[in-house]
Amino acid sequence: MKNKNLTLKGICITAVLAVFILTGCEQEYLDQEPQDSLTEAVYFKTPEHFENAANRFYRRLGFEYGDESSDLSGNISGDLYGQGNGVTTPTDPIWNSNYSLLRDPNILIEKAEEYAGDQSEIAESVGTAYFFRAWHHYKLLQRFGGVPIVTSPLEVNSEELYGPRNSRYEVVDQIIKDLVIAIEKLPSQNSLGLEDQGKLSLEAAKSFKARVLLYEATWEKYVGNATDGDGTSEGAGSAMPSGYPSVQDMLSEAKQESLDVINSGAFELWDHRAELGDRHLYYLFNLEDGGSNPAGLTKADNKEYIFQTVFDYTLRQTRLNITHAKPLTPTRKLMDMYLVEDGLPVQHSPLFEGYDKITSEFQNRDMRVTSFVRVPFKEYWGWGSNTDGGGAQYGVDFAESGINYDYRYIPQLLSPSGGRNIGYTGVKFTTEYRLRETREESFNYPHIRYAEVLLIYAEATAELNDGIISDADLDMSINKIRERSGVAPLTNALIAPFSDLTMLGEIRRERGIELFGENFRFDDVKRWGIAEEELNKTVALNYVEGTEYETAENPKDPGTKLYNPDAFPYGVTQAEQSVSSYDGIATTKPGALILDPASNRNFTIKNYLDPIPTDEIRLNPALLQNPGW
After folding, report:
1. What is the reported pLDDT for 194?
2. What pTM was estimated for this model as a whole?
3. Cβ atoms of residues 501 and 566 within 8 Å
4. Distance CA 449, CA 431 (A)
5. Which ranges carry the SusD-like N-terminal domain (predicted)?
């Protein structure tokens, strides 16, 4: 796993609006001890004490967009994780932060055992603690595999500080046990009000449990123990606790937990095509108050986020350079993974208009293209008072904005410098709000959303049945996502004529498209055992040779070409190239601009896990390094 993890650098991002407003006795209570963590000085005497302590856990989560330098990302500056060129480091923020953050849930759980009152009075707070304990162990599992399990508040002389790593199987077992308790104690989303937006529910715990089970089941199915090490000279070993579930058992339970969430009726997909048109999905990810979109929708209209960090313009801005950076830019591969309106991929659809014209590939496409990728020469609002012409003036034509600015989007194909927005510009998680400057964005960040639950159900079902899934199961899961994206449903009959298309491949395609930029891609290709094949291909962008780009001029600057071939050192693709282990993804033809050649990319099995920080091994020699590091 690799991500920007803007969360853990700043450890104080708040998750719940109710938590933002600390008034009266709650503020007085919190002022009694250090603000960054709970201590033994905290007296857990009343249900309010437990609730206040549990509310603190949310503040440690925030914005975690990721996937940069993956096979789907046109951003390769800075973080080059996808190239497989990582090195061992003395410290690691994921290790340090998650172990630090485990202390507070463990304190609450320990104090709950001593609570003299009715346990039902503190059940929700305790359930929250068990959820977060599972959450932080899962973050460590994704990054390092087996790690030391910590289920008590550690002191300087605690044995756990000097013990060996637990195996990944023991960590998963602990995570599942904690989530079972969280599910028992947390309330249903159906009982929570708007004022509780961002707080955990039993459906959130079930969704997270389904995620963990699918992740580990597929890891064990496709990767096995290849990254475990022997536990004697390297790695965490392969010890399994008694009663550890089989792959089939985990897949079955993942399917059932996701089905429970579906049947709860507590959540629904964002679908505002009627009010917002073919960009409606863009507004899900920049939703603030009524000024953030043409339909005047607010966060209260979003029923898709199951677990989220709640930001607020007045109380808690993101303070991150999100909109200016625009990190979620697609590659040639991702652009070709997006479907055509008829539900078929570009290489098979008669509706696909090809690449000859600059705007051809945007025609008749999935609304996730028109929502998240700017169409050349189309007009778009900027943001703030004057950036790119200033923010949206809904109901006003661009020509009548009162600002002397040409709002048309022009692709940048003159230089690879800067590492972003080359060829394509992605706009997922960006704002066009007139009242928002850089770092003031205040839309919520989803940690779990309903679309992922639908994807889990479909994937677990197909994995359980050797890649077979019924049309009925598709209709209750993936086809809901495709419908709101303006794409025809996936059916067995639709793909039957094409030998290169499989159900499992199409489900994985949907996952890559739907969750792009939300920090899933690296973990997905690793748990499927295909990271080397997916990440080590040449990363390309627009087709330039043989297309309109070769001669087109910039309409904002007549006489200036849109594309400068001399500025790109790697040139263009010279032959047809496979881009995926799945034959159903369109190959890249000659003439595509190369952003990162295959020769730069060397992702191997050792990169499936990151190295244990060397300072930790120095302090505790019982920690064995991961294989290959």
Report:
1. 83
2. 0.93
3. no
4. 20
5. 92-214
